[in-house]
Amino acid sequence: SVVPIPFPIATARVGIFNGMDIGLRLAYLPVINLPDLGLSANYTGWGLDFRYKILDGLHLPTVTVGASWDTMNGSFSLNTNVKQSSTFVSSGTTYNDTLAGSTTFTQSWNINSFGAKIMVGKDLGIIFPFAAIGFQRNSGSVSANIAGTVTETVTDSGGTAQPGSGSTLPVATQNTGAPIIFEPKYVLGFDLGEGFHWAVVGESNGTDIAGSTSFRLQF
What pLDDT score does 1 carry? Predict the structure, then answer.
């Protein structure tokens, strides 16, 4: 299942000279705990980017190049219930093997990311559709672990518990590694409005898909 967690991001952007602007992004999600869902999460990050318009005109598309730098730090944990059953045959007898219990999945990350892209769009008045292609180079670390306890119950076909049945087993696994070092970036979106704008953006690295929406005042 998917647990949606919104990450609020504040962005300020200012023009440096004709055709170029620079932006600052700040993201902060304090530690949240939802005991009913067994969920906790937190997130912080900041970033800088600049854009330069290399082509624009009444009958021409707008072509912009840009580069960005972002940092992302956070963690996510979720409690899950374990309920798995299987059967096996030993000495001609069929046995039922059941695992039941709970575990906690935890993931944390500390990532720096540099990216560059070229974007093509067209001003159609109140709406500005655009597409972009570029890359991201990531560094840092991502770690994940699962911990908890489960109880194993083994019964024969008649429902009789076998010797040692009801054993409690610890679950512990951990994985630490680097994020994807280099990945492509494909972007589609639109910007709607005048003065007060609403933007919808979809991004993909060729495997995963992400979406975002934002509102801004422009003057």
Answer: 47
